[in-house]
Every structure is written in structure tokens, then in C-alpha cells.
Amino acid sequence: MKWRKLGQIHMPDGSRPWMLSHAANPVAEAIGGDEFRIYFSTRDARNRSSIAYVDLDLNAPSKAVRVSEQPVLSPGDLAMFDDAGVSIGCILPVGGKRYLYYMGWHLTVSVPWQNSLGLAVSEGPGQPFRRVSRFPIVPLNEVDPYTISYPWVIRESGKFRMWYGSNTQWGPEKKDMRHLIKYAESSDGIHWQRENVIAIDFAAPDEYAICKPCVIGDPDGYRMWFCARGPSYRIRYAESPDGIAWTRMDRDAGIDVSREGWDSEMIEYPCVFDHRGERFMLYAGNGFGRTGFGLAILERN
């Protein structure tokens, strides 16, 4: 597997107060023809994240067709689980609706944050996303007691399947955290059964944060792209016959930092999608998306 980079696609120009910096966690949604709506997380002057979008034509992806004038989703009410920001995990069509799964940021005192997962629903194309609740649909509990991150959800035979990040410990410093990827199931996409199933575990002693899974079910099995952090984030890869038991194959990820430029220090938050027989990857660059996101295409043998 080898990805050919098509270059930096988008970064905020600072013209909107709620979108001053960062374009992280890019997620693609087909909107017709060769156009895709790319949702991403962006930040204001207080470092609070909102969800925005940019529409792209894959024939000329470096030139935006349009950029959202208002947030798709803004930080939640004061003292709620998402009052410090919202970061997109994925968008899933469910009947005529669209489910937007997201991570809510909630800052704390003794540890940096205590995040959990929310859901916003759009009733149809062109309709706004509205929270189903001010409270998380995936809260902290005995299985996930510390913090939860970036959900990726697919639906198969009426069953919802989710891969998400979960802390197993905190420590005196941020690098002492142990954050890996777990698996859960649901019958309705709202109420989740979590059995502490670890999907992706650590592969090296210096890894301490594994997150932002993107899962695709191919005819020969499941493929997952995610990012792992030691000194800095890199994109990693794994395969599974059933979506539950995974084998890490990081050497086959096929993409790394560039020698210089916007993605020379770190690459992270992958989103892989197919279009017209080609496979594409969106990913963020330096500074956790401060330099925006780019696009790559899988080279076929």
C-alpha cells in the first residue's frame, strides 16, 4: 500500500471568529457528482473547537467550492460535557437521516480533560444537525472511566458498530496517559453496549495515545487507519477478519511525514473513503491540524 499525496487542501484564513485556526479531523461526505463536503474541527480565540465544512470537487480539490458561513455544531452549554468544544468523529446515513457522532471537550482541574461522546442528527439533506441531548450518549463509566475520544461508526445488518478511543490511565504528565482504541455495539446507534473490548493496543513503549479510527469493510476483511503518538503523531494501519480482533500492520500504512512543509512534523486523524474506483485519504498536518488538512490517493499496482 502506498499513498500519493495531492497536497494541502484547506486551512482557515482567520476571517471568522469561531474559525480562527486549525482544520483537524477531516471527514468526507459525498454530496453529488465529484463533490464532497469535508467536515472538520476548527478553533476560536479561546481554543474552543466547533465543527465546520468545506465543499470540494475532487477534480480540483485545492480550490474550495464553498466554506460554511456558520458552525455545523458549536460548543455546548456552560458546564455540559461539550462546553469547551466539539470535535467530529464521523457522519453516518441512517434511513433518510444523518448521524453526526462527535467528541465533547470538557476541561478539568486534576487532569487536562474529561471527554465523552455526543450525537447530533440531521433530518435530511440540507437540514441542520441538532443535538439529541445536552448530555453524552456515550458517557464515562466503569469500562471507560477517564476520557473517551473520536468515534467511528458503521452499520451492518441493522447493527451499529463503533470504534473509539479510551484512556486506561492518567499520570502526572500528559505523556503518562494510556489511550487506546476499543470496540462497542448498539441496536439503535444511541444506546451502546461496551464490554471493554480492546481493538488496537500499544505496539511500542513510547506510544501513549492511539486514536481517531477510520474503518472500512472490504470484501476480504476490515481495514482500519488510525493515528498513534509517541514523540509526534503518525498514521498507522491494521486489518481484521471480523472488525473485533485486529492485527497492526504499521509498515503497510504507506504514508509518512514530508521532508518539509505543512505536514513535515506530524500527520494524523485519517479519514479514508472511496469514489469512482479510487481510494482517498484525508489527514491533518503539523500542530494537530494548525496547518490544515490534505488529501492523498492510493496508488494501484
What share of the residues does DSSP label as strand, in percent? over 45%
| Count of individual helical segments | 1
CATH topology: Tachylectin-2, Chain A
Intertermini distance = 9 Å
Q: Give me the Rg, rounded.
A: 18 Å
Mean pLDDT: 96
Helix content: under 10%
Order of helices and strands: EEEEEEEEEEEEEEEEEEEHE
Query: Main beta sheet, described?
Result: 4 strands, antiparallel
What would CATH call the architecture?
Answer: 5 Propeller
Sequence of strands across the biggest β-sheet: 1-20-19-18
CATH homologous superfamily - what is it?
Answer: Glycosyl hydrolase domain, family 43
Stretches where pLDDT is under 50 for at least 5 consecutive residues are none
- Structural class by SSE content: mainly beta
Overall spatial form: globular
- Count the domains: 1
Count of β-strands: 20
What top-tier CATH class fits best? Mainly Beta
Protein topology:
Blueprint: E1 3-10, E2 21-32, E3 35-43, E4 49-57, E5 64-67, E6 85-94, E7 97-105, E8 116-122, E9 129-131, E10 148-156, E11 159-169, E12 178-186, E13 192-200, E14 209-218, E15 221-229, E16 233-240, E17 247-248, E18 268-275, E19 278-284, H1 286-289, E20 293-298
Antiparallel strand pairs: 1-20, 2-3, 3-4, 4-5, 6-7, 7-8, 8-9, 10-11, 11-12, 12-13, 14-15, 15-16, 16-17, 18-19, 19-20
